[in-house]
Design brief:
The complex is a heterodimer of chains A (about 350) and B (about 290). Chain A is mainly α. Helix content of chain A is about 65%, strand content about 0%. In chain A, helix 1 packs across helix 13 and helix 7 packs across helix 8. The chains are: A mainly alpha (about 350), B alpha/beta (about 290).
């Protein structure tokens, strides 16, 4: 996808116990005396080191290049006079009085005699779906992580953990198809909604995609709380639930926050599920029962058709920049939270 | 789109019943590499989603009769197909609408030709509602009111008291543009109209949505109810049947086109001639559209 970030990686929260340095371990020989083969190895080592270094920097380079490319394609929106006649930032963000409409409105109708590019319906749609997905996924993801790390016995843990992680492997098109064909009818019947495909269906389907993200990171965070904390708490006379609520949860807080932030980034950028299950109508409303059109789905649905370098093309890339910036921010926030937790636990353990 | 291509090749493989795995692997590899290096003997057909099934059926039959020919058919929408024709990435563009003046101008700028337009079939653009809907006919005016969002309840059309759920197509679709020009008279669709990625998706949505309404090619109308359309409240309600579509009395009948950059010659010419022949036109009827004559 054009704007998707790399999927959130499983960050290793657990710091390996510092092992005693063994003199016999060849890894520790870097600054020590070289073994006998030294005459042949350095050249190979140096080469390998360069290769690994290049690989490590290539993903950073890729991100920068992607951002530069998207930015370059979106840039004409801000200064090009030809595009400015059709669409400007002001026209995108403020309600316009269009001919044939009764009142000033935010309208997304890019293929029309007078193309209309209001961004609010798409942004609000994205936030609406994301909010619903988070409302479902956060309690489920964090709750099951807490259960698995604190309450579940070993056997139960070995069933639940791989199962939830398996969910991460389900392709989003399959989740979307399931939502489109099965879940939509079911939710409509149960709640008596006017329209089958709506923000609620898309949000719930989306939550399946982000539960594993939140679960995995949170579970590692809970597991990373040093046992000495629990022992200290128990020694002071705290009950098990008191230890969990007062000690473990606060200590793992930043790690859980990181999981939520990574899940948020995934939810905002996820395309296929919302494209299939949301109905794709750019309605500006707060109701979860209305169909929505998200930013990512709009880009996916419309980019193939637009005139290269035209106003519509530029607007889609501008939306891509917004999406990219948002997911980048949430991912950085997540990394920051993980770092903070590692420092906090590392300093005290 | 890629998937459709591969499916086409897969079908072709089955029809020839090539048993050897190696040959199959080679065929798949060729199919995957084809977009990178389009071989001269291959004819690529791209465009209208309405016409994808028609184009694929043509390609299958043609390749069965001419084993040396390879024809690849993909969808994406009429707009996508015309862009591909302009960019030179397809030989034939299938379109369910005529080319706009702006598009013709672009083609002329690049190739010093306005392109060749060949009508290959006719379609009665059908209005779909759920099978349980009591309505049987609708006027062009009512359609416009529904799809622009001025009428939002079936009660206003003599139906049950329920909200109308409007299904439309993505704006890359030729059907979207045709409907907008001929029914909405170029007004905007209501923002509540849900955009579906293809005609099959519209049919599927309307089949599941009790109070839904949508539009699309006649060939896709399965498991739903097709409304008869009146030109105005005075005139007779006409169903999109063969006779009415051919003589143009059905208000939403439209031609389906092939667009080419130049007069077809060689492999492309042979294929186009075959499509317009009796054999090719017989397939049009089988798929569910209407032949030219």
């Amino acid at each position: 996808m054009l704007v998707g970030l790399a999927p959130p990686t499983r960050s290793a929260l657990v710091r390996p116990e510092p092992r005693p340095v063994e003199a016999s371990d060849p890894k520790n020989h870097r600054h020590a005396e070289r073994p006998r083969l030294a005459s042949r190895r350095p050249k190979f080592h140096a080469l390998a080191e360069v290769a690994i270094r290049v690989l490590a920097f290539s993903s950073i380079a890729a991100i920068i290049l992607i951002f530069v490319f998207i930015g370059k394609e979106a840039w004409p929106l801000l200064h090009d006079s030809v595009i400015g006649k059709e669409v400007t930032l002001a026209k995108m963000w403020f309600a316009q009085q269009w001919p044939g409409y009764d009142a000033p409105e935010h309208v997304w109708q890019p293929v029309s005699e007078i193309p209309k590019y209001a961004a609010w319906p798409l942004v609000v749609g994205t936030l609406k779906v994301t909010l619903i997905a988070m409302l479902v996924a956060v309690p489920l993801g964090v709750g099951s992580a807490l259960f698995v790390s604190q309450y579940a016995g070993r056997r139960l843990r070995e069933i639940i953990k791989p199962t939830v992680e398996l969910l991460a492997g389900v392709p989003s098109v399959v989740l979307g198809f399931f939502a489109l064909m099965v879940m939509a009818s079911w939710i409509q019947q149960v709640l008596g909604l006017d329209s089958r495909l709506n923000a609620l269906v898309a949000g719930v389907a989306l939550s399946f995609a982000i539960i594993p993200v939140i679960f995995t990171v949170s579970e590692e965070a809970f597991g990373a709380v040093p046992h000495s904390y629990v022992e200290a708490s128990t020694a002071l006379g705290a009950a098990r639930w008191q230890t969990i609520v007062r000690v473990i949860v606060p200590a793992a807080g930043p790690g859980v926050a990181a999981g939520i932030a990574l899940g948020l980034g995934r939810a905002v950028g996820e395309t296929m599920i919302v494209l299939m299950a949301s109905g794709n109508a750019a309605i500006l409303s707060a109701s979860p029962a209305d169909s929505v059109r998200t930013v990512s789905a709009t880009i996916a649905a419309e980019l193939a058709e637009v005139v290269f370098g035209g106003p519509h093309y530029t607007v889609l890339f501008f939306l891509g920049v917004l999406l990219f910036a948002f997911t980048l921010a949430t991912n950085l926030l997540g990394e920051f939270a993980i770092g903070r937790m590692r420092r906090r636990l590392g300093g005290m353990a | 789109m890629q998937k459709v291509q591969i499916e086409g090749v897969a079908k072709k493989m089955c029809s020839r019943s090539v048993g050897k795995t190696i040959t199959q692997v080679l065929a798949i590899a060729t199919a995957l590499l084809a977009p990178l290096a389009a071989a001269a003997s291959e004819v690529t057909v791209k465009g209208s989603d309405t016409m994808v099934i028609l184009g694929q059926r043509w390609a299958e039959e043609y390749m069965r009769a001419h084993p040396s020919a390879t024809i690849q058919v993909t969808g994406g929408g009429s707009g996508t197909g015309i862009s591909a024709l302009i960019n030179g990435t397809t030989d034939i563009c299938q379109a369910s609408r005529t080319m706009s003046a702006a598009e013709k101008e672009k083609l002329r700028d690049r190739y010093a030709t306005v392109g060749v337009e060949i009508p290959v079939a006719r379609d009665g653009l059908s209005v779909y509602v759920n099978a349980s809907n009591p309505l049987a006919e609708i006027t062009m005016d009512q359609l416009k009111l529904i799809f622009t969002g001025k009428v939002t309840n079936w009660k206003e059309l003599g139906g049950p008291d329920a909200k109308i759920v409007v299904y439309s197509r993505e704006n890359s679709s030729g059907t979207y543009v045709f409907f907008k020009e001929h029914v909405l008279k170029n007004a905007d669709y209501t923002v509540r109209a849900q955009s579906m990625p293809g005609t099959a998706a519209v049919v599927n949505a309307v089949a599941k949505e009790r109070f839904g309404i949508g539009y699309g090619g006649a060939a896709y109308a399965k498991g739903i109810k097709v409304l008869r359309v009146k030109k105005d409240s005075e005139s007779a309600a006409i169903a999109p049947e063969e006779a009415h579509v051919k003589d143009g009395s059905y208000p939403l009948s439209r031609p389906l086109f092939f667009y080419l950059r130049n007069k077809p010659t060689g492999d492309v010419g042979a294929f186009v001639d075959w499509v317009l022949s009796g054999q090719g036109q017989a397939i049009v009827t089988k798929v569910g559209y209407y032949p030219l004559k």
